[in-house]
Amino acid sequence: MAGRCAPGTEHYLLKAMHRRASLVLLNTLSLSRLPLAAVFIAVSDLRMRAFLVVLAAATDFLDGWIARHRGLATRLGALIDPVADRAFMVTAFIVCLLDGLIDPVELTLLLLRDIGTAIGFIVARVRPDMRAIELKARMLGKVVTTLQLAVLLCVLLYPPLVRPLVALVALLSLASVVDYTRAVWRQRQHRELPPSRPSSRIPHGPTGAPMGSVRE
């Protein structure tokens, strides 16, 4: 029948539409942390804020899990996810500071990793020789993010654990910045290495004549 797609083409279109819908869902999950941050500002009940922290952590885990297990990781998603994470985390910590739940020193220590990676990101994008470097999440960074969420919950629900956790976050943040810097530096060095060339020297035999040649 005229105008009807071939079976293979129809299957491809359906698959493409399903992938696009899945990507929209993933990005929506990531971006949902922005309105959660706004709600965190608006509410004053500590238990409600703790629930928002858990909800934000759940969306972070869920979108990452789906992206990895369904092969839906994209450059856009890799940008949206950490930006949404940082937006929620920084907002929540600043609100806690303004409410007197943490002090400025604790805030600085908690955001040490984020300050370091932000500076590194800007440098990598400003320098022409580093723009092509792919900035990927590192395991230490994920550990720091998890501990930051734990600190937030303790600030809201169990303050006695805040200071020890802040100290741990600060130490791991320094290690994370070093690890991140080394990873970027290795990528930069790898890109600067010239491609290996085959040797142009002709091997010689015991008599000094090129190997494979026939002497007259």
From TrEMBL:
Residues 189-216 are annotated as: Disordered. It is a multi-pass membrane protein. One of its GO terms (cellular component) is membrane. InterPro entries: CDP-alcohol_PTase-I, CDP-OH_P_trans, CDP-OH_PTrfase_TM_dom, CDP_ALCOHOL_P_TRANSF_CS. The keyword Lipid metabolism applies. Its main location: membrane. The chain crosses the membrane at residues 21-43, 79-102, 139-159. One of its GO terms (biological process) is glycerophospholipid biosynthetic process. One of its GO terms (molecular function) is phosphotransferase activity, for other substituted phosphate groups. It comes from the Bacteria. Keywords: Lipid biosynthesis, Lipid metabolism, Membrane, Phospholipid biosynthesis, Phospholipid metabolism, Transferase, Transmembrane, Transmembrane helix. It is found in: Membrane. Belongs to the CDP-alcohol phosphatidyltransferase class-I family. PANTHER family: CDP-DIACYLGLYCEROL--GLYCEROL-3-PHOSPHATE 3-PHOSPHATIDYLTRANSFERASE, CDP-DIACYLGLYCEROL--GLYCEROL-3-PHOSPHATE 3-PHOSPHATIDYLTRANSFERASE-RELATED. This is CDP-alcohol phosphatidyltransferase family protein. It comes from Corallococcus coralloides (strain ATCC 25202 / DSM 2259 / NBRC 100086 / M2) (Myxococcus coralloides).
